[in-house]
Design a protein that fits this description.
heterodimer; A: 317 residues; alpha/beta; D-Maltodextrin-Binding Protein, domain 2; 2 domains; globular; B: 495 residues; mainly alpha; 20 helices; 1% strand; transmembrane (chain B); DUF112_TM (chain B); Tripartite tricarboxylate transporter permease (chain B)
């Protein structure tokens, strides 16, 4: 009896191992469980399953670290040329590859689809004298050092967005006093207690504090105003910038052409499905879809734009 | 009043059957590990981290709270019955408790410990409930210079207070600070101390260090010192319950223990050892039966046992409100929060009210569950001590290794685990305290971040670090911690 009891977990384990070996699709999630990339990957396949687009088995691997570069490097090594291997990645990966001098090149992978985006907002304390984005930019121009601005890690999307804003206003990027903060919450406290003149972060991090009246949002980096948030875009304020923290799907390097087309089609169907619309709504993600080669040229452009900014900021050679 | 309705809402969450189940499980587990010498709440929670990642954070923290309180209850049982503290905070209990057990009053000792723990735990939880939201609001006024000064204070106090000498304390602290530097620097995006290993880019995982130091290091130590004879257990004999006299002699020490334990637990470097020692000394001074001390005085059990439970609640205050861990257990809880992508601090009260208030409410629930578990079932808990040590510790080692592998499937993590584990063993043998390593590892990056933010926002002017009244106060206290022993020695030499 005891012997049998001991065997049961082993049998379950064996079944699990066998199951994963049979899985048709391998998906690399280059982040730890629970984060945005992790949920993007898992929710996308769940929605595909619900919508009947792809109902087969999926084998997920989490491998976090350094903006996804560690997971993608492993993905490239293990799955080059394999037919049904996909990876989640995003805007942060582009900057991380340059900053960490990672050996991987996004152009080696097959661009499947860009799925979602979160736009960025810039905010000041409620008591701040700056009433508009122009006010803030003027202050930055007059004395960049005395206008410390907080946001996410160096070379991340927040930093890039601020650098683009500076460029558009003819402020040398290297003069900016950008102070990376450990989290969006710390950026908010820094703004509220006056350590930071302003802060930049994803909408979700700032919105509730703006609603509480602790901070005032001055601008958003989207092309058009966002519903439910009465804030002008950077473009309206006269700075021709559009940038988002986007997430997408890559195929393995040298994926066979047929499989590649199938996946581009499946994600296109997913994007139009009811199930995915529901996911976007519950997660609060913005749709930001393009697919196939069009996505490939977008990655290329982002790579050049971010590379140039990082050089100007003195973070990369 | 708002606190009250939030607390009620918290009870709504804590009393859901599934969460009651987790609280019960945590309490069971906590009592069990409290009873077993050498395994503390910090290690248990660290081992549970990889396992709990798939359950909801609220449930996980409710379970952790059970473990935390349970360990304090369980620790006293071992102290009283086998004269080996199951838990660092139960050290003083062993002095009088075991004597009582030998004199046939074991049941009374166990009862005063359990009831004292319950009363202290409940009073402290009430204090926590009503002071935490106010302290959380403070965080909006804390500037980087204040945080930096606070971390400096935490560093000096932990290094000075814990361990057998200050040199050892500071060496441990700097080891932790060095480990905390590994990884990509957030401010510049450059890699530090990674030796070209990509797996180190995100730094050394706190869980890995914790498990290595507590499980691997401690088990190597126990194994290297293992003798087959073991300690002798004193069976429970005599009257089952506390007498009228016992009650009369216990209630004041319970309250005094609580008054000592809660605030000291909330201080950096306070932990649960210091308040129990203070409580014991205090009871010894105040007692009307000085002749009984050293031979089994009930006050010497009641006071310290209340103090250690109160301290366990105290450590939650700086942790929940400011994100500041003050002991090894708090450090693990912080790691648990971060595992779920949650940052303890003032925002936790606004962004995750369900979690915070559910957790606080579950402390009340856990306390009651523990009283029920501990009073009548003491005989069963004691049997745990008959598990042979080799099997027990080997099992923990295997569980720890699987757990670390499970977190990230990383070979590098396992290598780090072996190296840090051996370092932990060496530290244990030569009496280097472990808590400063953890505090250094956790608070080091925070101190650096706040220092650099303060300097950058002040455009490089170092005076910004003493620009607020709070920062000056904290730095002065930190300096006193460092200098006071030297000054006192001087004064004495001169006198």
């Amino acid at each position: 009896m005891n012997f049998r009891k001991a065997l049961l977990p082993l049998a379950v384990l064996a079944a699990m191992v066998a199951g994963s070996a049979q899985a048709q699709v391998n998906v690399m999630l280059p982040a730890n469980p629970g984060g945005g990339w992790d949920s993007t990957g898992r929710q996308a396949f769940q929605a595909m399953n619900d919508a009947g687009i792809y109902t087969g088995a999926v084998n997920f691997t989490n491998k976090g670290g350094a903006g996804g570069t560690i997971g993608l490097a492993e993905f490239q090594g293990a799955y080059t040329g394999k037919p049904d291997a996909l990876a989640v990645f995003g805007a942060i990966t582009v900057g991380s590859i340059i900053l960490n001098k990672s050996p991987i090149d996004l152009a080696d992978f097959r661009p499947v689809a860009r799925l979602t985006a979160e736009y960025l907002v810039i905010a000041v304390a409620d008591s701040s004298p700056h009433q508009s984005l122009q006010d803030l930019v003027e202050a930055m121009k007059a004395d960049p050092g005395a206008t410390p601005i907080g946001g996410g890690s160096a070379g991340g999307v927040d930093h890039i967005a601020l650098a683009l804003l500076a460029q558009a206003a003819d402020i040398p990027v290297s003069d900016l006093n950008y102070i990376p903060q450990a989290s969006g919450a710390e950026t908010v406290t820094g703004i509220v207690n006056g350590t930071l003149a302003a802060g930049i972060s994803g909408i979700s991090e700032f919105q509730q504090f703006a609603e509480q009246g602790r901070i005032r949002i001055l601008g958003i980096t989207s092309a058009e105003r966002k519903e439910g948030l009465d804030v002008p875009t950077f473009k309206e304020a006269g700075y021709d910038i559009e940038i988002a923290n986007w997430r997408g799907i890559l195929g393995s390097p040298d994926m066979p052409e047929d499989n590649y087309q199938t996946w581009v089609d499946r994600f296109t169907q997913l994007n139009e499905s009811e199930a995915w619309a529901k996911v976007l709504e519950t997660q609060g993600w913005d749709q930001f879809f393009i697919a196939g080669e069009e996505f490939g040229s977008f990655i290329q452009e982002e790579n050049e734009r971010i590379g140039a900014i990082l050089k100007e900021a003195g973070l990369a050679e | 009043m708002e606190t009250f309705s939030l607390l009620l809402q918290g009870f709504g969450i804590a009393l859901q059957p599934i969460n009651l189940f987790w609280a019960f499980l945590g309490s069971l587990l906590g009592t069990a590990i409290g009873v077993l010498p050498g395994i503390g709440p910090a290690l248990t929670i660290a081992l549970l981290l990889p396992v709990t990642i798939s359950i909801a954070p609220t449930s996980a923290f409710i379970m952790f709270a059970g473990v935390l309180y349970g360990a304090m209850y369980g620790g006293s049982t071992t102290s009283i019955l086998i004269n080996t503290p199951g838990e660092a905070g139960s050290m003083m209990t062993a002095l009088e408790g075991n004597k009582m057990a030998r004199a046939g009053r074991g049941a009374a000792a166990l009862a005063t410990a359990a009831i004292g723990s319950f009363i202290a735990g409940t009073i402290s939880t009430v204090l926590l409930t009503f002071s935490a939201p106010a302290i959380a609001e403070l965080a909006f006024y804390f500037r980087p210079a204040d945080y930096f000064a606070l971390t400096v204070l935490a560093f000096t106090s932990v290094a000075v207070v814990m361990g057998t000498s200050r040199v050892r304390g500071f060496i441990s602290l700097f080891l932790g600070l060095a480990l905390g530097l590994v990884g990509i620097d957030q401010m510049t995006g450059q890699a530090r101390l990674t030796f070209g290993i990509p797996a180190l880019f995100d730094g050394i995982e706190l869980t890995v260090v914790l498990v290595s130091l507590f499980a691997v290091g401690e088990i190597l130590y126990v194994a290297s010192r293992y003798r087959k004879d073991g300690s002798e257990m004193t069976p429970i004999r005599g009257q089952v319950w506390m007498s009228r006299e016992d009650w009369k002699r216990s209630w004041k020490p319970w309250l005094r223990g609580t008054a000592l334990g809660f605030p000291i637990g909330a201080l950096p470097g306070g932990g649960s050892e210091i308040p129990t020692m203070l409580s014991y000394t205090l009871e010894r001074k105040l007692t009307k039966h000085p002749e009984e001390f050293g031979k089994g005085a009930i006050e010497g059990v009641a006071g310290p046992e209340a103090a250690n439970n109160a301290a366990a609640a105290g450590i939650l205050i700086p942790l929940l409100t400011l994100g500041l861990p003050t002991s090894a257990t708090a450090a693990v809880l912080l790691a648990a929060f971060q595992n779920y992508g949650l940052q303890p601090g003032p925002f936790l009260f606004t962004s995750n009210p369900d979690l915070v208030w559910g957790l606080i409410a579950s402390l009340y629930v856990g306390n009651t569950v523990l009283l029920v578990l501990n009073l009548p079932l003491v005989g069963i808990w004691v049997r745990l001590l008959s598990i042979p040590a080799p099997q027990l510790y080997a099992g923990i080692l295997v569980f720890a290794t699987i757990g670390i592998w499970g977190v990230a499937n990383s070979v590098v993590d396992l290598v780090v685990m072996v190296l840090v584990g051996i370092a932990g063993y060496v530290m244990r043998v030569y009496d280097f305290p472990i808590a400063p390593v953890l505090i250094g590892l956790i608070l080091g990056p925070m101190a650096e971040q706040q220092l650099r933010t303060a300097l950058a926002a002040g455009q490089g002017n170092p005076l910004v670090l003493v620009s607020t009244p709070l920062s000056v106060v904290f730095l002065v206290i930190a300096a006193l911690f460092l200098l006071a022993p030297v000054l006192i020695r001087r004064l004495r030499a001169n006198a």
